[in-house]
Structures are given as C-alpha cells and as structure tokens.
Specification:
13 helices; Butyryl-CoA Dehydrogenase, subunit A, domain 3; Arc Repressor Mutant, subunit A; mainly alpha; 241 residues; RNA_pol_sigma_r3/r4-like; 3 domains
C-alpha cells in the first residue's frame, strides 16, 4: 500500500494498522533529526533517547496532520519532531548548573559590551572583560554550545508552534509556518555573521555536514569548526532572544 493510500485509510477510518505503518515509514526522519541534534550535545544524552523523544513528535504529527492543507507532511513533521525532542530535553534539565552559569555570564558580557560600544563585539573584547585568555573563552563557549543550541531551538520551535493567534489544538501546518518575524530575524542574524560563520552555519544546517566534513571543505580543524559554530549560534541566540 502506497503512502497516499495509508494516509487515506488512517484519516478516514482511524485505522490502527495504517497508523503503525505510517510511523514505520517516517521513523527514518526521526533518526535523521535526532542524529543532527546528537552531534551537537551527544556527550550529555544518548542517541536512542533522542530518537525515543522524537517518535512522540512523529506520532503527534501523524495524528494532527491535515491532508487538505498544501503542506508536505515531512515539512510539518520535522517541526513537531524537533519540538518534541527539545521540549523533553528542557524538561529533563540535563545541562549541569555550572555550564548554565557560564552561558549566562557570557550572554551578560556580550550584552553589556554591545550596549556600551553600540556595535557587535569581538571575542578578544569579551575575553578581556572576563579577564581570561581567548583560548579559555573558546573552551567555555564549546562547553556552553549545547545550552545556546537548545535556547535557539526553543525560540524557533516556539515561533512555529505557539503563534499567539492559535492554541496548540487549533494548530495547522499553515499556522506553524506563518511566523514570519522569527525567520526575518534569523535571516538578519545570519546576514550579520562573518563569512566563515555563515559558511559553517550553511554547511551544518542546510547541507547537513558534520563538523569533520565541514573542516575538510573549509580546510580547518574539526575543533575550529566547533568554535566557529559556537560563536555563530551565540550571536543568533542573542538576536532572537
């Protein structure tokens, strides 16, 4: 039975077998999304756990998907799956308090200097303000990278799923994709990044390359890619918060 037939059978008859087959057919999408998130903070969480959280998002997407809307299921499901994973991680509060404190300190320092200088600040200026070396700042930023990614992901998910004009029960694919302000801000943020930062963000999120693969493309080390990614994510987080 093809996908369309499965969808029709499930939506018209609420057929359990059809629903189960839809879950099986789209579970690979969950694995892809979980894999992308795992590469960012795999040292703190198990890959299989991320897949498990994502399955709940997939089931939610299948149950709420409206076939009459002109939106591909994969587009709709990705948002639900990612949202389910991020929501679970937030509820687990798995990030150590010490790392959260470091993330907060860096955020406050960036905001303070940007307010005083009236422009974007350089890493060396942040390091000097914190009275640490640039190498130490890079080390701290790598530690807080997962916090910044979670915060950014939460903002994007909230922008998609919590539009002020709709409750979760009324949410449709069209409504999920209509929060233009979030995406306008994100585009502005990406445009403001340095060339290397834009390249890393593009290769990581759009071309879905790993840090190692990006390093090969750009001719830099994997650790350097991680540093650039951390800095770019922090800038985007500050803009969107």
């Amino acid at each position: 039975m093809d996908y369309k037939s499965l969808w029709l059978k499930y939506k018209s008859e609420n057929d359990f077998d059809a629903k189960s087959k839809l879950i099986e057919n789209y579970v690979e999408l969950v694995k892809i999304i979980a894999g992308r998130l795992y590469s960012s903070y795999g040292s703190n969480i198990e890959y299989d756990d991320l897949v498990g959280y994502g399955i709940f998002g997939l089931i939610d997407a299948i149950e709420k998907y409206d076939m009459s809307k002109n939106v591909k299921f994969e587009t709709y499901a990705q948002i639900r799956i990612r949202g389910a994973i991020i929501d679970k991680l937030r509820n687990l509060d798995w990030v150590p308090r010490s790392i959260r404190q470091k993330a907060k300190l860096i955020d406050e320092t960036y905001n303070k200097l940007e307010g005083l200088l009236g422009r974007g600040v350089k890493e060396i200026e942040v390091a000097n303000e914190l009275n640490i070396t640039l190498q130490d700042l890079h080390s701290i930023m790598q530690q807080v990278n997962s916090v910044n990614i979670i915060s950014l992901e939460e903002k994007l998910v909230e922008g998609n799923l919590n539009n002020a004009n709709f409750s979760n029960s009324d949410m449709t694919p069209e409504n999920i994709l209509c929060n233009q302000e979030v995406y306008d801000n994100l585009k502005t943020g990406i445009d403001s990044l340095q060339d290397k930062e834009r390249q890393v963000v593009s290769l990581y999120y759009y071309d879905e390359l790993t840090y190692k693969e990006i390093g090969v493309v750009l001719g830099i080390s994997e650790s350097r890619v991680s540093q650039i990614h951390s800095k770019a994510i922090h800038k985007l987080k500050v803009l969107l918060m």
